[in-house]
Fold:
Amino acid sequence: MCGIIGRVDYRDISPNLIEGLRRLEYRGYDSAGIATLDGGKIRVVKRAGTVDRLAEAFRSSPVRGTLGIAHTRWATHGGVNDINAHPHVSCDGKVAVIHNGIIENFAELKSSLRREGHDFVSETDTEVVAHLSEDILREGDDLMQTGLKLAKMLKGQYALVIMNSDNPERLLGMRHNAPLMVGVGRNYSVYASDVLGFIDETKRAVFLEDDTVSVAERNHLEVRSLGGLPRDYKVVDLAEELGSPDKKNFEHFTLKEIHEQPGSILRIMKQDPGKVTLFRKQLEEAKRIFFVAAGSSYHASMLGKIYLSEHMGLYSDVILASEYRSYERWFDEGTVLVAVSQSGETMDVLEAVRAGKEKGCSILGVVNHAPSSLERMSDTVVNLRAGQEVGVAATKSFTSQVALFYSIANKDIDDLEVESISRAVSDSLAQEEAVKSIAREIASSKDIYFLGRGKNFPLALEGALKMKELAYLHAEGIAAGELKHGPLALIEKGTPLILINPDDETHDDTISNGMEVKARGGVLIGVAPDTHGGYDYFIRIPKVLPDHYPLVVAVPLQLLAYHTARLLRANIDKPRNLAKSVTVK
Ligand code: G6P
Structure:
């Protein structure tokens, strides 16, 4: 969601700002804008729509300067239009602000600022920050003091970058429950909400701690707590952690990431056994275990729960992060929260973790995007090391999470088993042509159902989620046993049903459910190691151990959604209305 770039440099930075925004596009957005200090005055160009639209507007009315900010907006307060796009400027034109998050008390602040004579032009919550800053700066405060005073006034969550025309060589950055970091370049500094905002230019970064105010100059950074105390910081080298994302020869990042899974699964299953043992021990000693996650990470956690139950005899619960409040009364010192998040920045997950920490829970984090807020908040953390996932829909991070949970639960896995899983996932990928032809059969359907039992049920949910996200088709994942309790009424002649049906203990019951659908005119698409007379279409998956099926089944389901989306010409890497990193509630 909202992407932030702020830059203080010695050369004209407008092209870098627009490039930075392009690299943050994957976070999801609906408008974009930039502001620079051009000839002593703040000048803004902003547009609803894509960064390309912004770049076009910029070409006909360029702004230049060595100090500037840029933003991709994902609308929360106020419709999607040019005026509500960021940056927002104060009445005197001397302050421009970009923001990720929500200022919860904006309505009160806005009324009192209006009473004092400030004119508002947008419907956003963010604009109050520009007007407040104008008032504080007029009293003669420097940028750091301005940030500290703002922190006392603002409620909600924010990453903010603020520029002021009387401070041509400095930017103010503030963060409270929203990500913000600084890229440290040679003679320049870049604020960004994500390392992708600057990683092509500098691999040195400062991950600002939460609840900090900072002022960046070209060769200097000052960081203080929201209360004003000086804070130390570390400049880290990103070269090893991340790489520059590159589509290679694939048409989309999503397809490339699907194809990376034999490697990413191998990496997570062979990683630091000490960390896995520590994780396992903390689970064994826990009084109570909750997985907390959203989206695909939630589906992976459902498999984590089954693996923990089957291999370790441990009972756990999986909660949607956004629903944690209903279970908060069980959070206490003996409780372990397994917080699972690809991005490590999902607001709902972080909120649940914060609530857990306050009650004394131990936090076991599972992240892919490190360093991230979740990584810093966790007591023990496993980094999936699946590599940057650029496609908004989770693919390789999902299988890495599943593979990790299996490795934690089953302490007898050896290298041979790991390698056989990775080979089986490659075999699943080899079914791509068959999957493509099935995509042609289902692309014109209005509803698609995915059915599975046991470990295949979370896969049914995940397969349906991919279909919704990528192809914008209505899809539902159903526990096979629930079919008769409602969903069967939806089956009509020609309704496609993906039957996830490996040769595990669920096979016979699931086939019976499939036949019930077929008897009502449904079209059966079997995902199984062996074909069956009832299938109208068949996607072969390799024959593997029951525990390995989730990993080999995930691949054709991802490919099916991908190729259906491609036929429907959907925006695969950046599906409409969705964001990679959901940093609002
Ligand atoms: C967004 C993404 C999903 C992802 C979910 C959870 O909705 O579009 O693909 O599964 O967030 O993200 P997380 O980073 O917490 O795993």
Summary: Residues 203 and 240 are 9 Å apart (CA to CA). The domain at 250-413 is CATH 3.40.50.10490 (Rossmann fold). Residues 549-567 form the longest helix (19 residues). Residues 294-297, 341-343, 346, 349, 392-394, 578, 580, 582 surround 6-O-phosphono-alpha-D-glucopyranose (CB under 6 Å).
